[in-house]
Amino acid sequence: MSLMRVRAAAQLTLPADVRTALKIKEGDYLEAEIVKEGVLLKPVSVVARNRRRQQAWKRIEKVTSRVKDLKPGMHKSGQEEEEWIADQVVKSRRRRKHA
């Protein structure tokens, strides 16, 4: 059994033998579950979340592909659209900050 100490910001360092046995490396996710005996930490995969995100983007692309341009000739590139959106977000945040 390995002993761990809770550090600043409630951080724990898993002992090397535990990390090795569970094949855990930096950046991996663990699920914490409170059980009768204490806390159970289980390695988890986030592949399913990424897959759902990809499926959501495919649905968004499918829907947006059906959108008709009511003002032909006003097309912007994807990068120009993203820059415009980022600019609008910045402006919105400034308005909220100064309100």
Q: Can you walk me through this structure?
A:
This protein has helices spanning 16-22, 47-65, 78-98; strands at residues 29-35, 38-44. It has 99 residues and is an alpha+beta fold. It has a domain at 9-64: Ribbon (Pemi-like Protein 1, Chain: D), CATH 2.10.260. Strands 1-2 form a two-stranded antiparallel ribbon. The mean pLDDT is 84.
What is this structure, in a nutshell?
The protein has about 100 residues and is an alpha+beta fold. The protein contains three helices and two strands. The longest helix is centred in the last third of the chain and has 21 residues, at about 80-99.
CATH topology name of the domain at 9-64, in short, is Pemi-like Protein 1, Chain: D
Number of strands: 2
Query: What CATH architecture of the domain at 9-64 do you see?
Result: Ribbon
Principal-axis shape: elongated
Q: Structural class of the helices, strands and pairings?
A: alpha+beta
The largest sheet, given as strand count, sense and whether it forms a barrel, is: 2 strands, antiparallel
> Percentage of helical residues?
40-55%
H/I helix tally: 3
Strand order of the largest sheet: 1-2
Task: Indicate the radius of gyration in whole angstroms.
Answer: 23 Å
Q: State the distance separating the first and last CA atoms.
A: 55 Å
Strand content: 5-15%
